[in-house]
Amino acid sequence: MTNIRDLAQMAGVSVTTVSRVLNQHPYVSEEKRKAVLEAIKVSNYHKNINAVHLSKGKTQLMGVVIPFSDHSYFAMLLKGIAKQALEHNYKLVLFQTEYIESKEMEALQMLKQKQIDSLIICSRSCDISIIEEHLQFGPIVLCEDNPRSKISSTFVNHYKIFSDALDYLYQKGHRQIGYCIGRRSGTNSQNRELAYQHFHKKYRLPYNSDYIIDQCLYFEDGERVITRIKEMDTPPSALLVTSDQVAAGIVISCQNQQLSIPDDIAIIGFDNEPIAKMLNITTIEIPLVEMGGNLFQQALNRALTNREISVKLIERGTV
Amino acid sequence: MTNIRDLAQMAGVSVTTVSRVLNQHPYVSEEKRKAVLEAIKVSNYHKNINAVHLSKGKTQLMGVVIPFSDHSYFAMLLKGIAKQALEHNYKLVLFQTEYIESKEMEALQMLKQKQIDSLIICSRSCDISIIEEHLQFGPIVLCEDNPRSKISSTFVNHYKIFSDALDYLYQKGHRQIGYCIGRRSGTNSQNRELAYQHFHKKYRLPYNSDYIIDQCLYFEDGERVITRIKEMDTPPSALLVTSDQVAAGIVISCQNQQLSIPDDIAIIGFDNEPIAKMLNITTIEIPLVEMGGNLFQQALNRALTNREISVKLIERGTV
DNA sequence: TTGTAAGCGTTATCAC
DNA sequence: GTGATAACGCTTACAA
Q1: What range defines the domain where residue A236 resides?
Q2: Which residues of A fall within a CB distance of 8 Å from B69?
Q3: Are residue B162 and residue B276 in the same domain, yes or no?
Q4: Which of A109, A291, B3, B245 is 20 to 30 A from B183 (CA-CA)?
């Protein structure tokens, strides 16, 4: 492997001059530039980027933490991040954590060790205080509403969205409303649960924890939801489903099992994915790709910013 | 940022000893080890991994090229790769190319520049000769059947699979068979097209290029397929659909448009995703996660291996 | 416009 | 067991 010193020797110049040519800096005579370029060509030279990284203390690598790479919500966030990354000449290092805390720690570890310049955590498992401790090693951004934290974030107000959606269903006459969620433990999930509790208090409705169905991540989970609902003595008349994929699975399951939508059960999905349009599912549009782009921008800066993204109810045929 | 030299000074030992402790090498007295460990603790020291990379000439980073991160086929391959990566203490650098050649070139560039140790290309855009040229910089593996090439690969025999599936449909009485595909230009796609042509020759069936429908990637593309088929004077009686997602979209579309499956049109999907089971779709099971794992293994070695993975027809209700 | 030389933070070789 | 010291390949003051 030929290096910058070999090049300097071949071209009969100093390493500085070679470096200048390599990084298109000014103040190099055309003559020497050509000599260097020639040397590069004949030697089939390529920069060792690790040396650059060590020297500069930067890697142009950004870490992205997601629990599952085959889940549409995260895939869309990732799409937005990847697009911005490309434009800004950053590469992405992917951490697929499956919500295992130790895998998330590995990402933080890499930030500490300077292998990545900054970190986007799309869904967090480990404690917020641990994240904060790592802030000294580089920008970290989250995709959740964490007031009074020192961490930048892009988020939607899940409390408000859930409240509004529940109100909407209430206006439509629903009194027994359940919801489906991926996991119950995240910040976003907890905000939703809070909204759910407050809703029941506000309208003095009986609170039924059976109506909260978790582990709803993929299309096929919709089947389980319907099976479970059919077993209930007093099933909910409406369901908030925090993923259009799952909502779609529910709709299909209902077809298979002769349940009528929205008469037997009303459905509101989330995200407004194409599948929701196709199946005519009422949903709450969340601009995930845009959010991904915003997360990237925040990770690029050191500034502390918390940006709320607004959403839109798309009324279709499942309510 | 404290470094290994500071540590040596603090602990009153040499950098070598510190390095030994850091890398758990033998031949360090318990006494000095403790001193070093103590220094590490009080100084909040962390290795600069870039220096390690430079020194070792390796990064423990593996590149993965996929066209779309929100496509289930690639998401599953990625899942398998990520799992192995974790076990072998490798991190993944993701290149989302959208089939744009220049983005694939960036991945090759990083291999050249030693920022990644090896590269897995799940779906290739650029010429095979370009890949071969880059083989000198590190292992590159492909996910396609490229006989007589010097490139390692894990693949399924798309020619044979397609031939068998077409024969199967022929036995079931179908004479007008079409197929849906993502793009027509990849090696895998061309093998399938070849099988399709040979099938028609073998049974002396009229060949109708309208029966090949491309750009079929996502669930929602199923709708377009059905729209198109309904416009045909002599529509196919069966469809090979190279993705269960699209097959599922087709099945739903048929429901919406009062087409009966398999009477009006028979469907065979690919991959055996959960959605196929749920919608009772006959499909060809491809162990994508396992293939991903195998790709990783090959990328880890320098040996040239070409491994064919076998598949299985899962008979359900759409044929 | 050009070059010298001092980093960047490790690992590896070799002598003691 | 231990420690100098030379790589690794690049960037960047600073000097000329």
Answers
A1: 158-285
A2: 69, 75, 78-79, 82
A3: yes
A4: A291
Tell me, what's the pLDDT at B302? 84
pTM of model > 0.70:
yes
Instruction: Please report which residue ranges of B23-172 form alpha helices under DSSP H.
Output: 30-43, 49-56, 72-87, 101-112, 128-134, 158-171
Q: Are residues A162 and A152 in the same domain?
A: no
pLDDT of amino acid A273: 94
Say if B93 is an interface residue toward chain A (CB within 8 Å). Answer: yes
pLDDT score for A192:
97
Q: How many domains does chain B have?
A: 3
Look at residue B196 and give its three-state secondary structure.
helix
Copy the structure tokens of residue A311.
């959403």
Segment B52-63 shows an average pLDDT of 93
**Sign of the dihedral defined by the CA atoms of residues B171, B177, B180, B183, in that order:** positive
Looking at the predicted structure, is the pLDDT value of residue B143 above 90?
A: yes
Q: Which of residues 17-36 of B have CB within 7 Å of strand D? A: 17, 20, 27-29, 31-32
Task: Select the residue from B58, B69, B296 to test the A interface by mutation, using most A Cβ atoms within 10 A.
Answer: B69
Residue A34 lies inside a defined structural domain of this protein:
yes
Query: Which of A61, A79, A113 has the CB atom closest to B48's CB atom?
Result: A113
Contact flag B220-A274 (C-beta cutoff 8 Å): yes
pLDDT at A181 over 90: yes
Q: Which nucleotide is closest to A45, CA to C1'? A: D9
Question: Six-digit token pair at A210?
Answer: 């059976």
- With respect to residue B316, please indicate whether it lies within any of the assigned structural domains: no
- Determine the straight-line distance between the first and last CA of chain A, rounded to whole angstroms: 66
Q: What percent of chain A has pLDDT over 70?
A: 100
Radius of gyration of chain B measured on its C-alpha atoms: 26
Please indicate, yes or no, whether residues A137 and A232 belong to a single structural domain of this protein: no
Q: How far is residue B240's CA from residue B243's CA, in Å, rounded to a whole number?
A: 9
B191-207 per-position pLDDT tens digit: 999 999 999 999 999 99
Contact: A48, B61; criterion CB under 8 Å: no
Chain A nearest CA to B97, separation (Å): 10
Size of interface A-B (CB pairs under 8 A): 128
What's residue A122's pLDDT? 97
Regarding whether A190 and A114 lie in a shared domain, the answer is no
Whether residue B318 is contained in a domain is answered as: no
In a domain, A147, yes or no: yes
Whether B78 and B195 map to the same domain: the answer is no
